Amino acid sequence: MAHSVEILLPAQRYVFALEDGRAVPEAAGSSAEGFKAYKRLQKEGKVAGMIAMPNCALIRAGENYVVDPGLIMQGAPVSGSLRARGIEPHTVKVILTHTHFDHVEALIEFAQRETYVHEIELDAPYTAIEQGVLDMVRPVKLSGEEGEIEPGVRWILTPGHSNGLISLLVDTEDGLVVIASDCVGPLPEYFERMDLPEDFGPERDELLRQWERIRELDPYMVIPGHNPPVVLR
Questions:
Q1: How many Å apart are CA 166 and CA 157, to the nearest integer?
Q2: Which one of 61, 89, 107, 129 has the lowest number of neighbouring Cβ atoms within 10 Å?
Q3: Which H or E element spans position 83?
Q4: Whole-angstrom Cα distance, residue 214 to residue 52?
Q5: What are the Cα distances from residue 213, in Å, to 114, 206, 223, 225?
Q6: How far apart are CA 50 and CA 53, in angstroms?
Q7: Local confidence pLDDT in tens for the 233 residues of the chain
Q8: CA neighbor of 136 nearest in space, from 168, 104, 164
Q9: Whole-angstrom Cα distance, residue 9 to residue 24?
């Protein structure tokens, strides 16, 4: 059964440095460039800040699913993007790849909607930060290593960035689309090279294992959390 995946709101990073009491924005043509600018400012010893908005995706299947609504300031644009497509926000279901705040806050736009999330994430300590928002929706707990939300919309557990992070597998006319979220990142070239810096962090080896699993699925497209979709064939 062929479905479709669209980006409702693309990933963006807004970066600034504090200089003489002023916030000086850094020009960045892409989310990846924003990340590099942030790291450069840090190396220069400057006080830097970054607002990182993740990709918010729409899966059109038997139901419409919003994946990772994002930061609170993404709420209104996500709802507007749905309405521009003739979809009212109160009619959709939501899927959270994980419960880090930058993927969850805009749930305020989807009060009382069914929201799929892995039970590991619901039990994670950082989830308490956003518990008030999660209490506004109707969580549907996912458990185990893999499962199906409906025919043609499956999920697999892909830990590393967080223990309960799931990647979504959507069958489309173009082939399999994997919404990998923050399992893939933080820069596009890392996934292209299938390697991460040696000093990346303790999750490095686990992330590389998950990248191999994703590649073995032979997807047409992979959608990271904070970078543009990657078309593989």
A1: 4
A2: 129
A3: helix 75-84
A4: 24
A5: 29, 11, 15, 17
A6: 10
A7: 689 999 999 999 999 999 999 999 999 999 999 999 999 999 999 999 999 999 999 999 999 999 999 999 999 999 999 999 999 999 999 999 999 999 999 999 999 999 999 999 999 999 999 999 999 999 999 999 999 999 999 999 999 999 999 999 999 999 999 999 999 999 999 999 999 999 999 999 999 999 999 999 999 999 999 999 999 98
A8: 104
A9: 25
Q: Residue 101 corresponds to which amino acid?
A: F
Q: Which amino acid type is present at position 122?
A: L
At position 116, the amino acid (one-letter code) is: Y
Structure tokens that stand for 141 in this block: 């707990």
**Amino acid letter, 2:** A
Distance separating alpha carbons of residues 151 and 196, to the nearest angstrom:
34
d(CA 51, CA 59): 25
CA distances from 85 to 6, 69, 88, 96 (A): 11, 16, 9, 21
Task: Please check whether residue 19 is in contact with residue 26, taking contact to mean a CB–CB distance below 8 angstroms.
Answer: no
Structure token pair of residue 46: 């400057």
Chain centre distance of CA 130: 16
